[in-house]
User: What shape does this take?
Amino acid sequence: MGIFSILGLGKSDTLYFPGCTTYFKFQQNYELYQKIFSKLGVNFKISEKKVCSGLSALEAGYEQEARKLARRNFEIFKEEGIKSIITNSPEAYKMFLYNYPEILPDWNISVKNLWAIILDKLKTKPRLIKYKTTESVTYQDSCYLGRYCGIYDEPREILKLIGYEIKELFDSRSESICCGSCGGLPIANAELANEIAKEKILQAKRIGVKKIIVVSMKNYELLKKNAKDSEIEILELSEVLALALGIKIKEKEQTIGEQLEEEQPEEDLIIDIKPDENETKGKLKPQETEGVLGEEEKIED
Assistant: This one.
């Protein structure tokens, strides 16, 4: 990791924004996405400054804090010459695509559909697919990617290209039922969130599949926790793509999310609200963290 920056192969004005859950809790998936971009020839840049998109604050009712986070991100993007963004986080994608233009009148950064980019790369370079499967799985629609952003087909088409047969859940696409991870529910009502997740896992059993594939790390975290001893495996898109592309996946260590499972990690890792004399102020912990690949990336075919 980092060899492309060391070799100085060029610059990119497209930022890869992993989102808080990917970066702070699932570093392996964060690294996998960068390897996938490298393999597919997706140009991108890594920022050393990691600031939350602000969606958690916005959904919790802290609009002023969300505005501050949005403004800080925009300042960073302008400082680093960012013209466009790709993100594997449906939550951040929705925030950048729909909320930032409302919050920031001068917002002028293009938000690219990463799933469409990956699909196009796989279609135009089928030789990159080293291993195909014939397995039947189901796909859980992310509320943010599907219901908010209308993206249903691209993730499914990616899975079909690498050989998966998709068996749809009883409620899917625009009728999909949330898995319990949205809107801060795991923090506000963890018991209810877990019950919803368990029901989703039972649905997968009823249609006769053993794997649920997701594109949201929040979905991944909640479903994986509730799938223990269920004989249902939860996989995130980067994991199945890495296998198909022949990218070695390191043996997983315990994630931060698993280490803090008994606590409320998102409260600590994403937004810390503290009262002030005049107003409530929010801050990200930590605000600046070193990127895995360094400051700039250029991936060649």
